Amino acid sequence: MNLKNVWTITTKDFGLFRKKKSILYTAFILPLFLSIGLPLILWYVINNKNLPVQHIFPLFDAFSFFFVILASIIPTFIASYSFVGEKTEKTLEPLLATPTSDDEILLGKSLAAFLPVIIMIFISALIFMVLMDIFTTAKVGYIYFPNWFFVTMILLDSPLGCIMSIELSVIISSRVNDVRSAQQLAVLTIIPFFVIYLLTEISVITLDINALLLIAGIIAIIDLGLFFASRAIFQREEILTKWK
Amino acid sequence: MIKIENLTKKYGNLTAVDNLSLQIEEGEVFGLLGPNGAGKTTTIRVLCCLISKTSGNVMLNNLSIDDKKNRIEIRKIIGLLPENVGLYESLSAYKNLDFYAKLYQCTESQRKERIEYYLKMFDLWDKKDVAAGTFSKGMKQKLALARVLVHDPKILFLDEPTANLDPEATKMVRDYILELKKEERTIFLNTHMLDEAERICDRVGILKTQLLEIGSPEKLRESLLGKKSVVEVDAITDNILKSIKSLGFEQISVDNNKMIIGVNDPRKDNPAIIQAIQDAGGLVQSISELLPSLEDIYLKKVRRIE
């Protein structure tokens, strides 16, 4: 595999994304909004509702889980544009005629969706941690963030969720003809994460490090399956003759 | 050089290309003519290693497309202009070319030099930083041609390069292709525009799933329609017709005061025909060789298969 080709494709996609305001807003504004908004909500609740300390800890974990959901939803917008955009602009055929392998193109385009999202998730998580500590340390009596639970969520579950959403977008992109449809279908990726979130909220399951590792294991297996499926779909002949 | 032997491509039960064999020499401009759905694009896609073949052998510059390792090598020496130009509309003309030049492993200095050369050649240098999406169809086609050339390919595959262009842009693109012909690149041109093939190509093939005919436009005319002379006289009488037939010319069709006569060699036969008409009391107003267009040949062959 020629990594130079991979990076050329990735940077070309970055150039395209820069011109798409909807992608910029989704990829950058949404994580920043949550990283500042969630601590502010907690700060408001602590100061105005006199929330007992034991009720704050579950909120820490529930809010933290939003980053996994975010890491799974944002790539769908970028990856769908990346793959379906090439289809609608009819740019795939000349690209496929270059001396690049299918895997290089697939990896290049996947990285273009993965890197900005994961970097933004890391930056947002950092802002979130700092603000949460500033707003809550006085109330809970110690610095809550960083902790292994949050680190596992950000460094393990979020990237795996992000990969899953990109791979699913590749598969969906082969079957639809417009970016919006691809995005709408790919958003379904978040359903399992949302179910986990709801089950946590109604105390059916408890989110701890063990649960996060289990979730990560399950996502990794799904990622592996989707990897082979997306690789099978992203073949020159498939793209030119079977992609709608 | 492109060598195709018994190439067949099937999509399920549908045969897109059937038993195609042809050879294209280095520096030759070859035109593949055919109606929509004749298998022209499929042929180009197989040759560019974009889709697999069902059977047959294909060699480009002595590299077989069967060998997976060769496919990357083949793609390095070819340039494909698909029917849809496929430019990144939000990227500038320069960035479009730079992206492709990088994928072809051109060095930075090669990229700068060639991009400037081709953008100037196609009169797009002034617009190098303008998004390709704002270009007219003709400008986009020129930019796409520049993209095809930026890695200096030996073989060019042009799929309907003037389709959907206005007459002015069509002429402009054709003129550029003729310029490329001077550079002695091998050009494989798919078109259904017969005058384009006639003007540009050294040889043409007529494809309708199967290769119906192949040769230079001149040879095709001779082989398919034979040589004919058009004679205009003041008035056609039975005596004139008898007199011409007595020379052994049996293929005569009459249209008002014009006769189209099947001949073997117009240079030798035309003086005898003039003499025969004069002997029969007729007055020859003009005599010329009938040159059927490529369109006539194409329609004759394609309709025959239908």
- What's the name of the CATH homologous superfamily of the largest domain in chain B? P-loop containing nucleotide triphosphate hydrolases
Q: Which quaternary structure do these chains form?
A: heterodimer
What is the overall number of helices of chain B?
11
How much beta of chain B, percentage-wise? 25-35%
Tell me the CATH topology of the largest domain in chain B. Rossmann fold
Helix content of chain B: 25-40%
Mean pLDDT of chain B: 87
Total beta-strand segments of chain B: 14
Describe this structure in words.
The complex is a heterodimer of chains A (244) and B (306). By secondary structure, chain A is mostly helical. Chain A has one domain (3-241). Helix content of chain A is 83%, strand content 0%. In chain A, helix 2 packs parallel to helix 5 (102-140). Chain A is elongated, with a radius of gyration of 20 Å. The two termini of chain A are 28 Å apart. Chain B is built from eleven helices and 14 strands. In chain B, the strands form three sheets. Chain B has a six-stranded mixed sheet with strand order 6-7-8-3-9-10, with helices on both faces. In chain B, strand 4 (55-60) and strand 5 form a beta hairpin. The longest helix of chain B is centred in the middle third of the chain and has 16 residues, at 167-182. In chain B, 41% of the residues are buried. Classes of the chains: A mainly alpha (244), B alpha/beta (306). The A-B interface holds A 4-5, 8-9, 12, 15-16, 19-20, 89-101, 236-237, 240-241 and B 11, 45, 48-52, 72-73, 75-76, 78-82, 84-91, 95, 99-100, 102-105, 144, 147.
